[in-house]
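Action item from last week, closing it out:
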Amino acid sequence: MSNPIILGIETSCDETAVAILNGEKIAHLFSSQIEIHKQYGGIVPELACRSHIETIAPLYRKILSVSGCAQDQINAIAVTAGPGLVGALLVGVSFAKSLAYALRVPLLAVHHLEGHISAIFLEHEEVVFPAIALVVSGGHTNLYKMPQKGKYHLLGKTLDDAAGEALDKGARLLGYEYPGGPVMDRLSQKGDRMRYPFSTPNCAGLHFSFSGVKSALSRLISKTDDSTKSDLGFHADISASYQWAIVESLVQKTILAAKQENAKSLIIAGGVAANSLLRKRMKAAGEQFGFAVHIPSREYCTDNAAMIAMAGLSRFERNDFASLDVSPNPNLSLGQI
């Protein structure tokens, strides 16, 4: 089968997403829950699960219409099996299992982070291995060595907050609603990062730690008088410095890993890969040290089902099918499926 048609389903957190991958043709849709969760300052698992239940079937019917794909043309169904919120995962896995059974097609259980890494192959087939993959989001900051496509060796991870979580919490300290990372990105573009310099977070080896810089931000804000706190210039400058410190840690560790592992390419994936400073600094560092840098388009950085379909395609080609009794695993490790 030269071009199998893969249905992708993603419900690991607060986005309900579906996609149809048909050769080079990609159709993908998602339903965001930001308006539901922002009033609580973060994701409420019970509300996320309820929204997935209400949204997934209508979204599936819509993707069939948008893609022009008939239901009986689907050759396999790829679904995020973990990690993530257990209730949210259960909705997607249950829907995928039921559909796979009804259509009599294989089920492909995909690791969420493998999905993020696979997003790069939606647009870039020229990745040269071995590669270093940085997966950086609100829940993860992981470095992997990839000796070849589909093989992953964990080199380092965050020991406390993920980078995306640190950016969101930093924005919240400044009074902005969830999700704050994109707000901080916009503010920082108008700020002077040298006005309130933060030390670049560092810890042993290839691991990450962002709790210290977050605490430093909290202390600085608490010592600042109210009139200054309300000044947008203050917000822009402090955002620029705080974001710079986090991004520099990501860049330095990724380049260090690439040097140690004699990598040829860098893959930057996950929601924080949409950050404008990270994209700019990583490309500059890659050029400086001689590494090809691959970053998905912003639409494929955040949680989406196109990346799950692409990861599923690789499993389909290897005949790596899941049983219909597979269960979602909120703590799934990459390579465990």
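Closing note: The radius of gyration is 20 Å.
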